[in-house]
Structures are given as structure tokens and as C-alpha cells.
Specification:
Blueprint lengths: L3 H11 L3 E3 L1 H14 L18 H12 L3 E7 L3 E7 L1 H13 L1 H10 L1
Antiparallel strand pairs: 1-3, 2-3
Helix pairs in contact: 1-4, 1-5
């Protein structure tokens, strides 16, 4: 059963090591939590742009702080975030995939 950090790494890995937009990450993890019976996902609340979990937001920050992902912020009319696995993050994602093959299959379908 993957924890939230594993889950985020698996989503990135399933999408060629990259995800765009914080809101999309929040929604994908939410859908996964709805479809998985054993996911360790933080609590979600209703928000303007759909389901939001402070725990998912904090996990993204943690993974960036500890160099598992790179966070790129682009400012045009509003800020857009792109997340990419670092080499360290790719190794972490591979281990998570090996330890959670069924979850990875489900995540691959969601992406």
C-alpha cells in the first residue's frame, strides 16, 4: 500500500516523469483514492477548483524540498506549476512501482 509520497512519484512516473498543474495533481490523486481500497491518502475538502488536500500539497512541497521532484513555476496571467522527477525521484518511483505493481497499474489508467 503506497503512502502519499509513493503515490505522487507513481503518478509522475506513469506520465513520463512529469505532471503539469497543481490542480491536476490534486484531482488525479483524489480519483485514485476513490478507486483504491487501500490508499493512504490525506483527507480531501471541497475547493473552488475541485477536491483539495492540504496533505497532498505538503507532500509535493516535501518531495521538492528533498530533491525527489523539481518544481517549475511559470507566471503568465497566473502561476502554473510543472513537476518533474529528478534522478533521485526516478529511483524512488521505480522502487515504489516494484513494491506496488497493482497500484501502479491503476495509476497508469488514471493518467
Amino acid at each position: 500500500m503506497p503512502n502519499i509520497h509513493d503515490t505522487i512519484a507513481l503518478f509522475l512516473h506513469a506520465n513520463n516523469d512529469k505532471l503539469e498543474d497543481r490542480t491536476a495533481v490534486q484531482k488525479m490523486v483524489y480519483f485514485y483514492a476513490q478507486l483504491s481500497s487501500d490508499a493512504e491518502i490525506p483527507k480531501y475538502d471541497h475547493h473552488f477548483y475541485g477536491p483539495f488536500s492540504q496533505g497532498v500539497a505538503e507532500a509535493l512541497d516535501d518531495m521538492s524540498e528533498f530533491s525527489f521532484i523539481d518544481e517549475d513555476v511559470v507566471s503568465r496571467y497566473y502561476e502554473t506549476y510543472t513537476y518533474k522527477l529528478t534522478e533521485k525521484g526516478k529511483e524512488y518511483a521505480e522502487k515504489a512501482k516494484k513494491n506496488n505493481p497493482e497500484d501502479y497499474k491503476l495509476i497508469s489508467k488514471i493518467v
